[in-house]
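ok so for the tutorial part 2 we go from a plain amino acid sequence to predicted structure tokens. step 1 is just haveing the sequence, like this:
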Amino acid sequence: MRDPKTIEETIARALAQQDVELVDLIIQNQGRKKLLQFFVDKTGGVTLDDCGELTDKIDSILEMENLIDGAYILEVSSPGVQRVLKKPEHFKRFVGQRAKVVLKIPLEGRGSFTGVIASAEDDHFVLDDGTNQFRFAYDNIKKANLDPVLEF
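step 2 — the prediction. this is what the tokens look like for a chain of 152 residues:
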């Protein structure tokens, strides 16, 4: 198997030609097979039919480019309401939305923060927890997700 970064970059380039964004890729061992989970998005959202078509496209790219050795399980889905935030563009797109952030190196004795993304630049973003605003460099982010308040 090629390294995950190569797989992610190859698939992201191919999907971008169809105006589809590869939001995240998770690779896990599933017995003797690899489980590849691709989370994709596009303007207007991703439908079940889109996921089916993209599964076929991604599968053919993986085969043609010989990116995976042996058997694998392929899953393609939308990123969901708690979508991962990985790139500066993600933070910029979701300014004004609530997010949960886990840090690599704690800030003020805290390792995680929840609040509204107040602003986002190329090298950092600001999270407002309702009391304080915290500035985080992207390279200190271990994990970040949208954290919407769902009302029923």
